[in-house]
From TrEMBL:
SUPFAM superfamilies listed in its UniProt record: Acyl-CoA N-acyltransferases (Nat), SCP-like
Keyword Disulfide bond: no
Protein name: GNAT family N-acetyltransferase
Pfam families: Acetyltransf_17, Acetyltransf_9, SCP2_2
Database matches in PROSITE patterns: GNAT
Keywords attached to this entry: Acyltransferase, Transferase
EC number: 2.3.1.-
NCBIfam families cross-referenced by the UniProt entry: PRK01346.1-4 (NF002367)
Top-rank lineage group of the source organism: Bacteria
Any GO molecular function: acyltransferase activity
UniProt organism field: Streptomyces lavendulocolor
Length: 404
């Protein structure tokens, strides 16, 4: 098997392979969009002779991490021909992605997994989680906080990247785990006229509050199924707000749209204020909790020194990394709000952990202590996990709804 870059001339073959393994046959417009996406990506292929039997595209993302931003390839469209499965093709594609990451100074990689079982073995850990939330909107939304009463306005989707794009960009400083979006990503992924998964949904609507902008929601609606007057659906794709009053105004608006009876939001942050200020948790229900972004620390030293730290910490980590030996061994992490260092040491370890578990904790969404209690991290020095947790902590939990 030959692992090499996939030239533009092979992109249609790569898409055919992707559609084959995902049992998909998108219409021409969607295929064109995928083609554009893949052309903008780094592309790695596995060739058996001249036949492309494995493919991986990686978005050239920049990911928000606590206190900063790091380059972070986002693997997607990962496909191995059914004739060549379980022979190490994906492993070889991943190895090449990691090699390039180390060589080109990109300390992270991050993806959304089609199946949870696949990526842990490659050192990815679930670093953000999302909630499914459903509101019974057949009655007014009961709130414990007064909503911001400034007027709401609808924004033309064509103008949305310019109007709400900068606002979303600012949220990345507060929430780790979000990658920067350009206008193309807004248009192709968030504001596409038709929803990729559900033809019956309306085009995207964008509602905004405040001038300058204090919050917005992107949503789509669907008419009710059983005859005239049957309550339809409001599907919320994104909602960001300066504070609880603005968020309350946006949720109240979404729950009061005529001819609808359910508001459904997917991938909300675990610390969404809605779940606190909703007066009736029978009306606002969490319907599920899911891993979101899986993060890989490709270069652990660069990743750890590339993020900010909430409190001083001095610990020796014994890290296992079965794929990237440079990450394996004992390292002293000395970090604090002003600076950080990470280098090899012969000192006894305070904590022993796998690189995938370090990745799960990296953005501040998983507590090291919880992994000690789960038997995944070994604490040799009592209190070491708590000290590391204090340093990893972020004010807001990491979160992204940007599935790719
Ligand atoms: C980021 C994304 O794009 S996610 C989308 C991933 N793609 C898909 O789900 C499309 C359909 N599936 C496929 O194309 C392929 O089966 C892939 C890409 C999932 C796996 O490719 P393969 O070349 O078969 O994987 P490879 O042989 O390198 O497997 C490496 C290891 O992962 C394991 N593995 C691979 N796929 C899976 C899976 N779906 N579930 C559980 N384990 C898996 C293998 O058993 C193997 O384990 P081992 O090291 O203990 O022997």
């Amino acid at each position: 098997m030959d692992i090499r870059g996939v030239p533009e001339a092979h992109v249609d073959r790569a898409l055919d392979l992707v559609y084959l393994v995902f049992h998909d046959a998108p219409e021409e417009e969607r295929r064109k969009h995928h083609r554009e996406l893949v052309l903008g990506c780094e592309r790695i292929g596995a060739y058996d002779g001249d036949t492309l039997v494995g493919f991986l595209a990686a978005h050239r993302f920049t990911l928000s991490v606590p206190g900063g931003d790091l380059p972070c390839p986002g693997p997607t469209f990962v496909a191995v021909a059914p004739t060549h499965r379980r022979r190490g093709v994906l492993s070889a594609l991943m190895a090449e992605l990691f090699r390039r990451g180390v060589r080109q100074g990109r300390p992270l990689a991050a993806l959304w997994a089609s199946q949870d079982a696949i990526y842990g073995r490659f050192g990815f850990g679930p670093a953000t989680e999302g909630l499914g939330v459903e509101i019974d909107s057949r009655r007014p939304l009961a709130l414990r906080v007064p909503p911001d009463e400034r007027p709401l306005r609808l924004i033309d989707p064509a103008d949305a990247p310019a109007v709400v794009g900068p606002y979303f960009e600012a949220t990345r400083a507060a929430r780790a785990g979000r990658h920067a979006r350009d206008a193309e990503r807004w248009r192709g992924e968030w504001l596409a006229e038709r929803d990729e998964d559900d033809d019956e949904l309306s085009p995207p609507r964008i509602v905004a509050l405040g001038e300058p902008l204090a919050g917005y929601a992107v949503y789509r609606t669907k008419a009710g199924g059983d005859g005239p007057g049957a309550p339809g659906l409001v599907r919320v794709d994104e909602l960001e707000a300066d504070d609880a009053a603005v968020a309350a105004a946006l949720w109240r608006y979404l729950a009061a749209i005529d001819l609808t009876g359910t508001v459904r939001a997917w991938g909300r942050p675990l610390d969404d204020p809605l779940l606190r200020f909703a007066a009736d948790r029978d009306q606002v229900r969490v319907t599920g909790q899911y891993p979101g972004l899986w993060v890989r620390l490709v270069d652990v030293a660069a990743a750890l020194t590339g993020r900010g730290w909430a409190a001083p910490v001095d610990v020796v980590l014994e890290v296992r990394d079965d794929h990237l030996p440079a990450n394996s061994g004992r390292f002293r992490l000395t970090a604090g709000p002003r600076s950080s260092a990470y280098g090899p040491t012969d000192d006894a370890p305070d904590l022993t952990l796998d690189v995938r578990d370090l990745a799960a904790c990296y953005l501040g969404g998983t507590r090291v202590g919880s992994l000690v209690r789960a038997g995944l991290v070994t604490e040799h020095t009592p209190g070491a996990a708590a000290r590391l947790d204090d340093a990893l902590r972020t004010e807001l939990l990491p979160h992204t709804g940007d599935e790719f």
